Amino acid sequence: MDDNYKNEFGVFAERPKVEKKIYDGKYIFLGLIIFFAVVTSPLWQNLGKAIPAPVPKLDTPVIQKLAAKDRKCVEPTAFMRANHMQLLDTWRTEVVRGAKRDFVGPGGVRYTASLQNTCLDCHSNKAQFCDQCHNYVAVTPTCWGCHLDTGQKLAEAK
Amino acid sequence: MSIDRREFIRIAGLSTLLGLGGKTVWELLAPGQVEAQLMPKANALAAKRWAMVVDMRKLDEATAKKCVDICHKVHNVPDFANVKDPKLAVPPAEANRWQIKWIWTEHYHNAFPGQEHEYVQERVKAMPFLLLCNQCENPPCVRVCPTQATFRRPDGIVLMDMHRCIGCRYCMAGCPYGSRSFNWRDPRPFIKEENPAYPTREKGVVEKCDFCAERLAKGQMPACVEAAGGGLTFGDLGDAKSKVRETLKANFTIRRKPELGSNPQVYYIV
């Protein structure tokens, strides 16, 4: 208890006695419990359940037509898995702003640096190849606002 | 324990210095691997300065329409004028404002304002002047673009990087030729026949003619030049022996609004 308490008139006085009590405590705590239960319910619901990691499918007609030794991407698979977004980002900048439209992969193979014309030619299954993983990690790339999902169109046509 | 201001600034400064020399920053600033692997195509057409000559003596209504149609077809340009579903139809008041055009036709008095007069030759009055982006030497659209989405290539083409466009429409205010169109709505449902090799645009970006930069990169001439059958001449102004230079030397040509100082690079033979 400090002795220097001043009341509202600036006069030293005894500290007023305030009853230490939470009014309507049971409603407040009940409300809080319900609130936290609802907020954390998705966690409880999914507790112990593992959502299987997506497995991108490679069984498109174009890939299957290729001989086994030709079935490789513009860069090694491990690199593509980790860095495809940086690769595509660099492609789009260099293609549009630098007019460099050819990509030389390892081994000197030349590819047209184009998402819509090169990537989707082989990976014509956008839903299984792109969207599946992007949904799993909750990212929404803005590519498809403009770039056409040509693979789907071709499959429908066939 | 507490630190005074001097000590705090000292620690902050030192850690900034350390951070700048760190491995991550070094890697970020170092030139990328992927950049080094990209290069122009072997058969790409190159020039010092691309330019176009429109020979109006050889362009009739039908040829001009053919040029417009092929351009809009290869570049997935939507057509809002002929929408079947009345719910999707453009309100008449917006028909002009919402229209998307890369290349289009106009009468003489609209194409060359200030040069028309009451007694202009009937032949000229009737001409469907083929208008497109003038790929200015001194492009006002590039100067006003806040994101550098529109930029001028060393070969003179004024190109748009759709990835950067934020749809502010400063370029449309800057362009004295009306060569730019804004996507007021999602264009996809209104593209008659999608060209699967070329992207569409999104709602909220500006678009315009780019002298078919994507075709030049593959060694092809612009789509309109191919469709015009000799009415359009396209080539390099930097090469004195090129067809555009020969045509310019042999004929009297005019340009649209040259008095504005934008130095347009589409020339017209009337």
Can you walk through the features of this model?
- The complex is a heterodimer of chains A (158) and B (270).
- Chain A has 158 residues and is mainly α.
- Chain A is 47% helix and 4% strand.
- Chain A contains six helices and two strands, in the order αααββααα.
- Chain A has helices at 25-45, 61-65, 77-98, 115-122, 126-136, 150-157; strands at 102-104, 110-112.
- The radius of gyration of chain A is 31 Å and the shape is elongated.
- Chain B is an alpha+beta fold and 270 residues long.
- The radius of gyration of chain B is 24 Å and the shape is globular.
- The model of chain B has no long low-confidence stretch (mean pLDDT 93).
- Classes of the chains: A mainly alpha (158), B alpha+beta (270).
- The A-B interface holds A 86-87, 90-105, 112-113, 116-117, 145-148, 150, 153-154 and B 32, 34-35, 37-42, 44, 76, 151, 153, 159, 161-163, 194, 196-202, 213, 217-218.
- β1 (102-104) of chain A pairs antiparallel with β1 of chain B.
Topology (SSEs and partners):
The complex is a heterodimer of chains A (158) and B (270).
Chain A: H1 25-45, H2 61-65, H3 77-98, E1 102-104, E2 110-112, H4 115-122, H5 126-136, H6 150-157
Antiparallel strand pairs in A: 1-2
Chain B: H1 5-20, H2 23-29, H3 33-36, E1 38-39, E2 50-55, H4 61-74, H5 95-98, E3 103-106, H6 108-111, H7 122-125, E4 129-132, H8 140-144, E5 150-152, E6 158-160, H9 170-174, E7 181-182, E8 206-207, H10 213-216, H11 223-228, E9 232-236, H12 243-250, E10 266-269
Parallel strand pairs in B: 2-10
Antiparallel strand pairs in B: 2-9, 3-4, 5-6, 7-8
